[in-house]
């Protein structure tokens, strides 16, 4: 039994179980009295998945589906309303502030907008070395060498030239490399990459993705990769989860989900990916309408108001994630028709 538990913990670096995060809607006192209830934004509403050690797990979906909130919950930046998040077998909800700080060196973030996440009044070197000063103050004499090494590893060469620059003095692609360097300087196990190339020029996105793949192998990293772009996810992810309105619609190996999308929402996202061929036109209609209000989500299957194959049961009974192909789970009452 202990051997089985040990092997299970070694396989999964992150374990998320029945995770919920509801944010209270801010109202005036009078509005609360008239409404007679307290409303919540159900950003994440019952999500379960694991991230294996050394893999890149992607979360994809429209804006407002809960991707970033799950990422923040996974590294302890938010407290769950319900459910558990375990990192390397440790329940984050049981950790005090001191214990969480010790864990933080093993969990880092690559933010979407480097101009917003870098201090404009700090040099690039000072911004990146800050993690070492916080987590490894006892090795102060080695900080500069570590800083120069990580700048070279992310392609900022010569490093001595870049460490004294300020964010506004370098290009957008170079700023994103600085953010990657800052995330990796503490040698983390888990990296939350939240739309890491969304703000970069199209011409450098492939270079940044190549860099992330290379660094994953060199540093033995585990990625939680958040994106709305399925073409980007295809380049870097090993497994992927498709989110819709705070719930998982489909989970599986990336090649499996791309080759056999079983949920109508996943099929719609796949159809929206541009194909570099002017003779190929989209034949599948896009879902009507927009993503519903997370304060008052639809009953039953949350996708049913926009689903082309919805039937009466879809508006009443919420589908559970079930395995229809090996390792391929889908939350749809009628997914068998796509097998």
UniProtKB/TrEMBL annotation:
SMART domains in the record: AAA
Gene Ontology MF, one: ATP hydrolysis activity
Source taxonomy: Bacteria, Bacillati, Chloroflexota, Anaerolineae, Anaerolineales
Entries under Pfam families matching the protein: ABC_tran (PF00005), oligo_HPY (PF08352)
GO biological process, one term: transmembrane transport
Keywords assigned: ATP-binding, Nucleotide-binding, Transport
Signal peptide range: none
Gene3D superfamilies linked to this entry: P-loop containing nucleotide triphosphate hydrolases
Family annotation (InterPro entries): AAA+_ATPase, ABC_transp_ATP-bind, ABC_transporter-like_ATP-bd, ABC_transporter-like_CS, Oligopep_ABC_C, P-loop_NTPase
Nucleotidyltransferase is among the record's keywords: no
Protein name in the entry: Oligopeptide/dipeptide ABC transporter, ATP-binding protein, C-terminal domain
Domain ABC transporter: 14-270
Family, as annotated: Belongs to the ABC transporter superfamily.
């Amino acid at each position: 039994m202990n051997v089985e538990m040990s092997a299970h913990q070694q396989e999964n670096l992150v374990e998320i179980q029945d995770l919920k995060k509801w944010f209270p809607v801010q109202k005036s006192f009078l509005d609360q009295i008239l409404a007679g209830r307290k409303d919540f934004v159900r950003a994440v509403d019952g999500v379960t998945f694991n991230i294996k050690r050394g893999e890149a797990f992607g979360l994809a979906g429209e804006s407002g589906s809960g991707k970033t909130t799950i990422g923040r919950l996974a590294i302890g930046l938010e407290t769950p309303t319900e459910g558990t998040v375990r990192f390397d077998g440790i329940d984050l909800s049981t950790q005090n502030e001191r214990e969480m700080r010790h864990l933080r060196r093993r969990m880092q973030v690559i933010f979407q907008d480097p101009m917003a996440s870098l201090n404009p009044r700090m040099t690039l070197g000072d911004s990146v070395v800050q993690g070492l000063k916080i987590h490894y103050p006892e090795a102060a004499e080695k900080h500069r060498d570590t800083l120069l090494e990580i700048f070279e590893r992310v392609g900022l060469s010569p490093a001595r030239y870049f460490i004294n620059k300020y964010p506004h003095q370098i290009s957008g692609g170079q700023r994103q490399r600085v953010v990657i360097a800052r995330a990796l300087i503490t040698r983390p196990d888990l990296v939350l990459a939240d739309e890491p190339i969304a703000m970069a020029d199209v011409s450098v996105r492939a270079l940044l993705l190549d860099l992330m793949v290379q660094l994953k192998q060199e540093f033995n990293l585990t990625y939680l990769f958040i994106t709305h772009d399925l073409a980007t996810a295809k380049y870097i992810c090993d497994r992927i989860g498709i989110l819709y309105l705070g719930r998982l619609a489909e989970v599986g190996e990336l090649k499996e989900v791309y080759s056999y999308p079983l949920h109508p929402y996943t099929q719609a996202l796949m159809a929206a990916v541009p194909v570099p061929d002017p003779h190929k036109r989209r034949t599948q209609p896009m879902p009507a309408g927009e993503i519903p209000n997370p304060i008052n989500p639809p009953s039953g299957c949350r996708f049913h108001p926009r689903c082309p194959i919805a039937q009466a049961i879809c508006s009443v009974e919420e589908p559970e994630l079930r395995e229809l192909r090996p390792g391929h789970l889908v939350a749809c009452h009628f997914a068998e028709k796509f097998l």
